Amino acid sequence: MQVSPRRTTLATVAASAGVSVATVSKVLNGRSDVAPATRSLVQSLLRQHDYVAPSPRRAEATPSATIEVQFDTDLNAYSSEIIQGAVEAGAEVGVGVVVSIRKDTDRTAAWARDLVAAGRQALIAVTSELTSGQLAALSRARLPLVVIDPLNLPRARVTSVGSTNFAGGLAATHHLLSLGHRRIAYIGGPATAACNQARLHGYRAAMESEGVPVPPGYVQTGHFRYPDGVAGGATLLDLPEAPTAIFAGSDETALGVIEAARARGLRIPEDLSLVGFDDTQIARMASPPLTTVRQPLREMGRVALRTAMRLAAGEQVDSHHVELATELVVRGSTAPASATSGGRPGHRGA
Length: 350
Fold this sequence. Notes:
This protein is an alpha/beta fold and 350 residues long.
């Protein structure tokens, strides 16, 4: 009679590595809170011991875990980066990612129940404005929620992931100030959006630190979209004393500003310096390539998914709000303020 070899357990691998069973479990589940050297050692021992996780093999008849990543507006370059990060993180831990677009008006009383009925373990809402009623519906359905770049900050404790928007706005504006610009305008997103407010405060803080006033009309709001850049850029560039530089709250908005400038015979950056925000693919494809503030969008997607899975497993999270660092990326859309910037060719307002 043949005796089957004993199956390797987590305890076996943990003992070989000199770490706890919990640490081996974290490596298997793709958790980020494990030192790189320890992770490499554990992964090597898992392969060496031919470790096979029992539950996924035996549970093939049951549906795999799925997380829904939900947007409330059409997808764009920003959205694709978030999705890419969430999908990559999901693949690492065997979790499916479902992407949907659901307008605020579609989030009815049955919305949360429908998500649970569809087998979702958690919801990641991106740039959404959630009402207290919608939050209560998710709570009643026991569906964990993580919000990326929330548009509002509800009183309830909502787990969210964002970036250092204030620092990004500060860096973008200081860059333009360092180039000698003083007439610097801002075109952002919704006035009440938390991320927009942080970027705007960073812009204002940089201007105040240099003793540079912000003239009336130099702050425009919109929805972080291309048409907002076209409209806001036109408004700014038609002012009697138009800005020589614009900080746009998103790359897509910045591309709209480029079009508004082109329609007025203005060149980027010779006649107008421009900084975006996000560092999506369109920033690198713009002509000229766009100076922008890089948000780690893919990492935000990864962190949101890992956090959602922890909440779904009933675990505690270290913080209800995580901010990842931004970074200024200088490309070809910014240049020193020219001596003739006040009378630029083709400028109707000059």
